[in-house]
Amino acid sequence: MKTKIKNKNSFTKELSVTIPWSDVEKDYKAAFDRAKDNYTPPGGRKGKVFGVQLKLFKQNYTPSIEAQFSENSVNEYFRKAIEELKLAPINQGQITHLTFHEGDDLVFKIEFECKPEIKLPNYKKKFKVTAIKYVPSKKDVEDSLADLQNRFATMEEIVDGADKDHFLFVDLQELDSGSPVIGKKIEKQYVRLGFGAFKGGALKTMKGIKKGDTRSVTIDIEGKQVDYEVLVHKVEKQIIPKLDDKFASTVEPELKTLAQLKKKINSNIEQSFENEHTKEINNAVINYFIDKTKFDAPESMIQNYLDHIIENNKAQQPGMTEEQEKEMRDSGLEGAIFNVKWYLVKEQIVNTEKISVSKEDMDNRTKELIEKEPQNEKGIKEFLQNPENQQRFFDDMLSEKLFKFLTDFAIVKVAKKKSDELRKAQGGS
User: Fold this and answer.
1) Which CATH number fits domain 2-113: 3.40.50.800, 3.30.70.1050, 2.60.40.10, 1.10.1740.10?
2) Is the pTM of this model over 0.90?
3) What percent of the chain has pLDDT over 70?
4) Confidence of residue 97 (pLDDT cuts 50, 70, 90)
5) Torsions phi, psi of 47, nearest 5?
6) Residue pair 106/73 in contact by the 8 Å Cβ criterion
């Protein structure tokens, strides 16, 4: 067997294989005899093919026997060739050339993809990355306290006319030229005056409304003015609890004072920002390696990645059209390329540095989770019995170990920013 390998690009290879007739003669003649033995000549018996009938059989059936034999042989010799050359295809090879005739060599070419060779940067000599770290402010604590006040607020029914910030428990009947639209009624719905669709003109219209009242109102629904008849079942106002020591102990029974609650909130915010900072560092590390390792991601891996995303979306959104699928594939292409590249880089670093996660590591982490949430012990154990969940658990721990290893070589320039900038970026005040 003669082989020749040609690199079409960094991941696509073309393998040329030539098998001498002497190596395939025995197998071909056996395949020919099997076909002959299964042939029933006109007016004769199965397998009894002699003289003129044999000559006609050869004329009529040799091309198909040769074609079938060569196709069957390609798989066997392709496997032998890649083993000999120590190659590891990542997709189904595509035959680009195949020739074989009785008495001649079997010759074929096949294209396939392999994982590209990746030259890692000399990261152990230290590398520089920049990561943002947000600093909590007084307003972060104030906003968290306000959220808690809303969470622990109670509702009180009022008999006076409704005003801004009041909650209405209503039925909404859509109208068309003053007449009800059949099938367009929303029952028992909470709305808050001054918020969402019930602000501006709608707020003015609904002010003063009481339990049992009916009123027509025009509200904005995604830029369209829609008329509704509103029936009020109840008017309520929110009673916000006072910020004091009693409130603190309501939120956290082990706390005695409001000052303690503020301190705990501030600590949680700091930890949240620290976690985000760690993610920033990890992302900066990923970007460093992607930038420093110049290679093309294999097309088959990119398409497999996109296929996976699309299948997940189809499961969540049945009825996806071909056009929607194409749009998703096009919009997700850049991200798919990036993620495939990082997968390959990560794999090489893990293999090079022999980073691994043992069963003992996984067992210890499971114990830690149970110690933190003993009430969820059964759920945690059941979750990890699922093979897919086990794999995700393993992958997460492996990534954790990898980043811990890599960040030891990273010189991190911390870009501190006020949390106000984060709120602004998120569209807050």
Assistant:
1) 3.30.70.1050
2) no
3) 97
4) very high
5) 85, -10
6) yes
